[in-house]
Amino acid sequence: MFFTAINIQQFMPVQQPTTTASTIGTQRQSQIVSVTKEATMKAEILWSLKVTQSHYSFHSSEQTRQLFSAMFPDSEIAKNFSCGQTKCAYICSYGLAPHFKSLLTNKLKSGDENYVLLFDESLNRMTQSKQCDFHVRFWNGDQVQTQFFDIEFMGHARADDLKLAFEKGTEALPKKNMLQISMDGPNVNWSFYKKVEQSLADEYGLNLLNLGSCGLHIVNGAFQKGLSSTGWRIDGFLRAIYQLLHDCPARREEYLKVTEAQDGLLPLSFCPTRWVENTPVLERALQILPNLATYVSAVGGKRTPNPDTKSFDEVCQALKNPLLEAQINFALSVSKSVTPFLTKYQTDKPMVPFLAADLHKMLKNLMCRFIKPEVMQEAKSVKKLLDVDIKLPTNYIDYSSVDLGYVTNRILKELRAKQKVGASTIMDFRRSCRDGLVAMVDKLQQKSPLKYILVKNMGFLDPVNMADEKQTDQLKGMLRRTLAYLVDQGRINEQDCDEIIQQYAHFLDDVVQKNHSAFADFNSLSDRVDTFLHSCMSKENEVQKLWKICRQLLLLSHGQGTVERGFSVNRKIEVENLVEDTYRAQRMIVDHLRIVGGIENVAVDKELLLSVSCARQRYIDSLEEKRKKEETQAKNRKRKALFEEIEELQSKKKRLESDMKALVESADKYALKAESTGQVTLIAKSNSLRHGAKEKKVELEHLEKQLSEKQLHFKSK
């Protein structure tokens, strides 16, 4: 790594050895270790890093000086140490975080290095706003690295709001070097994506490389849709058995006593939005089904109190279903068929070269469960597999042959043999299973990354494929299609394509053959393709144009695993009264510590010390800026209130003028009528109206005076 490790021992006072025994006592008494301000500052930096890394509150730093002095009475650093709540907070927010972000920004701005941007938003429960996290993916030495970059807070998360947050959060990044935006797949994200891509095309003549939305989310969503299409409501049952015994010690004790469960197994928490993380939940539900039946029976026999809750009623209703165990086993069987993919692609390593093969394998296995063998034999390529019409009934095998999983089939046979269910019930069950598989595969076909050119063709970077001479022509075809796409997106010069293809052929014939076993034995689970190809290509002068393309392609993100894990960090950081800037700072520090491998590996160099020494002034400037902002806002509120008051007075003035005019006109009409008819009463009415008009005039004059004063006051503000 590029960081220099801290030698913590350098902060400790060092005593020089004495030369004679007679002077030992004198030297020990007179020797005072001179501890510099820099050494104390380093100690305060280390403590601030520890506070952030362990998610301590800043308040936990109170009275640390007295504590450390008591713990280390012989240390001058401990005596000079001063890092209370406020200081720890501004060291983190205005010293450490700005320095770590500048290190990252400088890397991304140096030269023409490309990067990938990843983003996702979630609710911050403390600030009660949507928090949009931005991560960047870039080359760091011989491997690709994904790192947190910034946070933006929003109310609405419409496409325009996302674009505004994107522009603000990535202001320091060179947009022309951005290769891809990695995201999950809501329509609002795609709308935002199109806006950003249009901006890049207009400004730089470039298009983003599109691999679709996150494959992890798509497979997750497909699994959820498949099981919901069966109509079984397994999710409701799993949630109910957990809630039945959660946060209720008395009921839990009664359950364990009645069921005599020696193993003490209890339901696991079910997360409805992350089905594939719930394979252990399904397995546990199957393990405790007999115990649940025993408990429900005991409640029915009044051997234990009735919980009388909605969750208990749901459990009772579900246990009446003779097919419940078969349903859970089928869900478990399907879950196990997709879990390996989701587990493998949670990594930050470059995985796009293997994505098509793994998705193809998973999709094919699911389709073989209900599609006729002759149809599947024809669908050998990715394109043909996606083109299979899975909604066409003639492509289905007979419902009795649908692959439900070994255990599910055994349970159905036992139920039929014991005459607990009829043939028609089993037929309906098998049809429900098929409907679930159809819905799942349909979503995978429609949303899968397999539809995108780069995903289908980046297998030419798989070392195992390179080692297979039988695939040489196929790999060259993949490279040609990839280059054609990159040319269309404005990412490479068309004139370089022939040379790149020749360099790839040379690489296969020369480098790969000389290191055949290393390529053939490559393991995508344990090895890193970026590090591997960097060691093989970066120093080969004959393949530098090829390597430049490979560097771009290996940057591409296969999913949102890093961003999703970041949300877990967010929840650890979230505390009441934590302001937005502090969230940003803590996330930046935590991620930097993750990248360098811990506090002991942070480079406490001159730049960091300078940044921390300026932290207090930045903090004071921030408070002053905040004070001025609040004053301006207060002034604007007063000005707005005064403006509204002036508008109200002007409106009132218009009403008075209108009323006065109407009174005068009415008085004139009555006076004219009295003159023509000689009726005295009309004169009285006319005089009464004129009197009212005079009162309105006095009121109007007073109002005009008020209005003049308010307008003068408004101009002076």
Concise description?
By secondary structure, the chain is mainly alpha-helical. It contains 30 helices and four strands. A four-stranded mixed beta sheet has the order 3-2-1-4.
Description of the molecule:
By secondary structure, this protein is mostly helical. The protein has helices at about 25-30, 35-55, 65-70, 75-80, 85-110, 160-170, 185-205, 215-230, 235-245, 250-260, 280-300, 310-320, 325-345, 350-365, 375-380, 380-385, 405-415, 425-445, 455, 465, 470-490, 495-515, 515-520, 530-535, 545-555, 560-575, 580-595, 605-615, 615-675, 680-715, and strands at about 115-125, 130-140, 145-155, 180. Among the domains are: about 220-335 and about 350-435 and about 440-450, no CATH class; about 455-555, no CATH class; about 620-715. A four-stranded mixed beta sheet has the order 3-2-1-4. Helix 11 (about 280-300) packs antiparallel against helix 13 (about 325-345).
* Global morphology: extended
Ranges where pLDDT stays below 50 over 5 or more residues in a row are 1-19, 21-34
Measured by DSSP, the beta-strand proportion falls in 5-15%
| Ends apart, CA distance between termini | 58 Å
Mean pLDDT: 88
Count of alpha and pi helical runs: 30
Share of helix among residues? 55-70%
| Rg over CA atoms | 37 Å
What class do helices, strands and sheet pairing give?
mainly alpha
Report the sheet with the most strands, covering strand number, pairing sense and barrel closure: 4 strands, mixed
Give the strand line-up of the largest sheet: 3-2-1-4
The count of β-strands is: 4
